[in-house]
Amino acid sequence: MSRLPLQEIPQEIAHYIKTLGGKPLNLYKILANNPRLLKSWLDFAYELRNGQTSRALREIMILRTAQLADCAYEMAQHLKMAQNAGVPKAQMEELANWQHSEAFNTVEKAALMLTEAIYNNQMTDVIYQNVAKHFDDEQMIELLLTASFYCMVPRFLQATGVDTQGEESL
């Protein structure tokens, strides 16, 4: 049960969500308690979704974060998004064991290494350099922000008690 009330999303923001291809998720209804921050959240989250790196790569990073955080809401939302982005079923099934899985290539493993380092607050120069071999600086910023943002999301969801009851996934 949500710790904050699910609010009606202001009409102009609801229209904006629709133009982005989104749906009125419970997460957005919680954020609607502060419409200014809801709009900022949407701007940032959707900007991350339309980056230079592949959507599939970013989705496996997000799913891994959801696993690490044991966040059912984030997992439920992003499983469908990962499928739509072309993430193979084998990768979704083997994500918890990505280090030893042949379902992931070197670039994907580097991005997942980055994700775990950020999630666990254990980024080192060695990890950064290993990941940066595969991406330019602009892509690194995109991946660093994706991993960081989606470490924050499950913490916010847990703190507010948002659940998926009565909601369809993106």
What's the helix and strand layout?
Layout: H1 11-19, H2 26-31, H3 35-49, H4 55-69, H5 72-84, H6 89-94, H7 106-119, H8 125-132, H9 137-160
Helix pairs in contact: 4-5, 4-7, 4-9, 7-8, 7-9
Number of strands: 0
- The proportion of residues forming helix, as a percent range, comes to 55-70%
- Low-confidence spans: pLDDT under 50, at least 5 residues? none
On the 0 to 100 scale, the average pLDDT is 95
CATH superfamily of the domain at 55-155: AhpD-like
Counting copies of identical and different chains, the oligomeric state is single chain
- What is the CATH architecture term of the domain at 55-155? Up-down Bundle
Outline the biggest β-sheet: none
Strand content: under 5%
What gyration radius follows from the Cα positions, in whole Å?
Answer: 16 Å
CATH class of the domain at 55-155: Mainly Alpha
Figure out the total of helices.
9
The end-to-end span amounts to 21 Å
Could you give a quick summary of the protein structure above?
The chain is built from nine helices and no strands.
Question: Which structural traits does this protein have?
Answer:
170 residues; mainly alpha; 9 helices; 65% helix
Description:
It contains 9 helices and no strands. With 170 residues, the chain is mostly helical. It has a domain at 55-155: AhpD-like (Up-down Bundle). The mean pLDDT is 95.
